[in-house]
Amino acid sequence: MTRRIHCVLAMLIPFAAVGCAGKGTIQLVSLNMTDIDPPEAKVWKFDAQQNCWWIDSNGELNISLLHQHNSLLGALGSYHVGLSLVFDEPPAGRARNYKVGPREARATFASAMATMRFMPFTGIVSVTIGKDDVLRGSYRIWATVSNEVNVLSLLPQKSGNILLLGTFEAIKHEEQGKKLRAFVESNSPARPARKIPTTQTTKPAA
After folding, report:
1. pTM of model > 0.90
2. Domain ranges of the chain
């Protein structure tokens, strides 16, 4: 347990002083259809203090959001909630709606006491790139939950599937964005390989 607390502190420290700011929200809603009381129907809402976007060397659009809560109680009361999105390419114009599947999103809730990872199976993200280079958008993502530790968690332990939803105003910042993505996706299952369209050439008839 002590080792886990030290690891959480080590991960949180790099984001305490430097960030890409912007605005964002990460909301979680349990879609458990077998039990509602307890837990009562509730929406967990977290304000993302850091919101970055960038286009990587493969031409993919990346968006990362992070909420970080540092408690006066130290590591035991601190936690983070993060969302990482990757799409095959940026909008051709100023706006685009993206479908979300198993490859496009990763999300996590982590503290010294519990870690929950959210794996998407469907959803939609809408983005608009402003003239100020701020990427604005909203999202709704249905995800399954993987619990690594089940003690003293802020979230329900039998949550069933989860709906993630929210909005963001992300600042273009590749260096910090890459750090956020690596942080959010640490120990998450690898993304499926990108599907690259193939073209077939037809040989002329002899």
Report:
1. no
2. 2-185
